[in-house]
């Protein structure tokens, strides 16, 4: 009885956090699509900061000691129907029209797609194949390239600033 109440309270807290995140994400996408000509970099950064804060809050809610472990909860579809379900359409905002044998494996999947899992495995084996010395050399090489690029950019900026201050020579 107590666990059910705790689970319900946790789900309510999660739903409210996810709804806030969804609204913020929707307004940010709207800005990107419709107000891109008036959009400034600081406002984009503000939107990202808001989204990041909301994701961190969601993580804290999930990691809170009073939040039950959702991975221990089992979800079993009680009704599968190939017919269009208006309640489901309304609840998912038109994203899922039916809950049938065809879509259940995708919506209740707990592992990545087999192709993604294979790619991840391949990347892991490639990363493990590279020795620590080789990885350190690659890191140093990349850092050296980045610092050289930054030096060139700052040199160009200095030259353009100083060039703009000097009067133009007559030819």
TrEMBL record:
GO terms for cellular component: core mediator complex; mediator complex. It is found in: Nucleus. Keywords: Activator, Coiled coil, Nucleus, Transcription, Transcription regulation. Residues 132-159 form a coiled coil. The keyword NAD does not apply. Pfam families: Med8 (PF10232). GO terms for molecular function: RNA polymerase II cis-regulatory region sequence-specific DNA binding; transcription coregulator activity. The keyword Nucleus applies. It comes from the Eukaryota. Component of the Mediator complex, a coactivator involved in the regulated transcription of nearly all RNA polymerase II-dependent genes. Mediator functions as a bridge to convey information from gene-specific regulatory proteins to the basal RNA polymerase II transcription machinery. Mediator is recruited to promoters by direct interactions with regulatory proteins and serves as a scaffold for the assembly of a functional preinitiation complex with RNA polymerase II and the general transcription factors. Component of the Mediator complex, which is composed of MED1, MED4, MED6, MED7, MED8, MED9, MED10, MED11, MED12, MED13, MED13L, MED14, MED15, MED16, MED17, MED18, MED19, MED20, MED21, MED22, MED23, MED24, MED25, MED26, MED27, MED29, MED30, MED31, CCNC, CDK8 and CDC2L6/CDK11. The MED12, MED13, CCNC and CDK8 subunits form a distinct module termed the CDK8 module. Mediator containing the CDK8 module is less active than Mediator lacking this module in supporting transcriptional activation. Belongs to the Mediator complex subunit 8 family. This is Mediator of RNA polymerase II transcription subunit 8. The gene is MED8.
């Amino acid at each position: 009885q107590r666990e059910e109440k705790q689970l319900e309270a946790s789900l309510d807290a999660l739903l409210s956090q996810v709804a806030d995140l969804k609204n913020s994400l929707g307004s940010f996408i709207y800005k990107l699509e419709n107000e891109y000509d008036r959009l400034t970099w600081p406002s984009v950064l503000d939107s990202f900061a808001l989204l990041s804060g909301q994701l961190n809050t969601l993580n804290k809610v999930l990691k809170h000691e009073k939040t039950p472990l959702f991975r221990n909860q089992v979800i079993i579809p009680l009704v599968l129907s190939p017919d269009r379900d208006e309640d489901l359409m309304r609840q998912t905002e038109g994203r899922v029209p039916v809950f049938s044998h065809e879509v259940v494996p995708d919506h209740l999947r707990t592992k990545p797609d087999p192709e993604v899992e294979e790619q991840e495995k391949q990347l892991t084996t490639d990363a493990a194949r590279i020795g620590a010395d080789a990885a350190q050399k690659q890191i140093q090489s990349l850092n050296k390239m980045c610092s050289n690029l930054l030096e060139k950019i700052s040199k160009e900026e200095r030259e353009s600033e100083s060039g703009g201050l000097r009067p133009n020579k007559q030819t």
